Amino acid sequence: MLNLEELEQFVAFAECGTLSKVAEEFHISTPSITRSMQNVEESFGVPLFTRSKNRIALNETGEVAVTCARRLLQEADQALSQVRAYDERRKTIVVKSCAPAPLWELMKKLGGSHPGMTVSSEICQNAEVQNYLEQGKCDMAILPFPVSLPGWKSEKFMTEKLFVCVPREHELAEHTGLYWNDLNGFNFLLKSELGFWDSLCRENMPVSKFLVQTEEEVFDELVKASSLPCFTTDYFKEQSDVYAGRVNIPIMDEDANVTFYLITKK
Amino acid sequence: MLNLEELEQFVAFAECGTLSKVAEEFHISTPSITRSMQNVEESFGVPLFTRSKNRIALNETGEVAVTCARRLLQEADQALSQVRAYDERRKTIVVKSCAPAPLWELMKKLGGSHPGMTVSSEICQNAEVQNYLEQGKCDMAILPFPVSLPGWKSEKFMTEKLFVCVPREHELAEHTGLYWNDLNGFNFLLKSELGFWDSLCRENMPVSKFLVQTEEEVFDELVKASSLPCFTTDYFKEQSDVYAGRVNIPIMDEDANVTFYLITKK
DNA sequence: TATTATTACGTTAGGCGTAAAGATT
DNA sequence: AATCTTTACGCCTAACGTAATAATA
């Protein structure tokens, strides 16, 4: 029966050319390598070397054996990787969400109910989330509507209501409620990674421009330093003092009042 | 690093279900198997079993590992076979000949010059021989003409002359020489495995029928018991007594006087 | 002389089996 | 009671390194 460690030394010999070099590389004695090569030869059951008193080299069959050994070692490596990857996947709960807030809520709950599990999460568009679900590439998902896919069940998870956030001096600040129509054309500060909120805004305010900020700090600085309107939701009960000089005005359209659904395996 | 022997026990466990059964199958103690499974688990580096006090079973990852192990073991087997087959091929001289007599001559010589080598020989048609040559699937070949293929050289090897062999009473027996034309229409006893001789006869005597005999003894009996003509060549200096009552008449056509060429690698 | 492969040999680590413990059916 | 896994433990094999040999460049 073949021995993978010996095969490793065998291919090393094919690359080094001498047993001494291999011994050096593996930090073992030369007699040990000699024995390994004898074992490999015996395992294959056919001559693999041409031996002179002071020199050993692969014969033609040996070259073929080296090729086979290389392939075998690589496949052994792949087997290890595959099993480890499978194990990793088994220990992680993969969550795909269409929005940040319900994802945070879910993570909070998962932290309590599944301690020790790794949670891998991503925020993406509704269609992408649905794709992951269909291909079974996630364990949980959050969407602003229920789905009816075989093997999955949907349940109401939480609601979130959108507000416009403007400085007190802003021309919109007087209103007690606003519609997309009123807002369309204004330019907004926007955070990145907002999932379906992002597309919702762009669809309902096609004329507006959105100044997307990747960095949280930069966003906050711009809120403080500019009079540009931005958004918030009822999820953020108390605002940090960056929003001190601002007021929140609810958006009255129906689709700005969202119910999120948690989709899990049956 | 994975150990193939342990993997073998691992897949055996997947089939048996208990360590005791595996121990029995491999004629070793149960503690030994326990250790092997622990080693396999450690090699993969992830949990593969669910253990209760007196029960051990594969977990989901373990099932995947078994599949990988099976594949790996199979590939190891293939590697062994491949190398052994290569070695076998290296030790055998593969000869393809268009006729028996020159093949026998060649085998005689090879027996002397390459002792210890296996000789694998086959008699086939000219075109088939050429195919083998072109595809490098033989080491030597015999054809009734020289070839000019890259990497191969042709040399005259021997000549062979065809005779018709008929009973003294036969109507052809009087002739001192015959042509295909004279013979066309007569039916002949013929041996099998004659290579290009077979097709030569059929081409030059399209009207004749050939009663091909696979068994040497049956052929001889028929020669003795019938008056059917058959063939022989100058290669057979002295005939056995089966041919006692017969005479040999040379075929005068040019293509019945053959020069065989030995084709070898340059 | 330096390098290399292999054999001989003594030591030791690791692998195996026996015995036993612990647990389940 | 029977079956099964795992631990403990002692023995013994087999793998390793050192030293020596032999041969080559």
Q: Tally of extended strands of chain A?
A: 11
Q: What level of helicity do the residues of chain A show?
A: 40-55%
SSE pattern of chain A? HHHEEHEHEHEEHEHEHEEE
Q: Biggest sheet of chain A, open or closed, and with what strands and sense?
A: 7 strands, mixed
Question: How would you portray this structure in words?
Answer:
2 copies of one chain form a homodimer. Chain A has 266 residues and is of the alpha/beta class. In chain A, 43% of the residues lie in helices and 25% in strands. Chain A contains 9 helices and 11 strands. Chain A has helices at 4-16, 19-26, 30-44, 60-91, 100-113, 126-134, 180-183, 196-204, 216-225, and strands at residues 49-52, 55-58, 92-97, 118-123, 140-143, 152-167, 188-191, 210-213, 230-233, 246-250, 257-265. In chain A, the strands form 3 sheets. In chain A, strands 3, 4, 5, 6, 9, 10 and 11 form a 7-stranded mixed sheet that branches. In chain A, strands 1-2 form a two-stranded antiparallel sheet. In chain A, helix 1 (4-16) packs across helix 4 (60-91). At the A-B interface, helix 1 and helix 4 of A face helix 1 and helix 4 of B. Chain B binds a DNA duplex (25 and 25 nucleotides) through residues 18-20, 28-35, 38, 51-56.
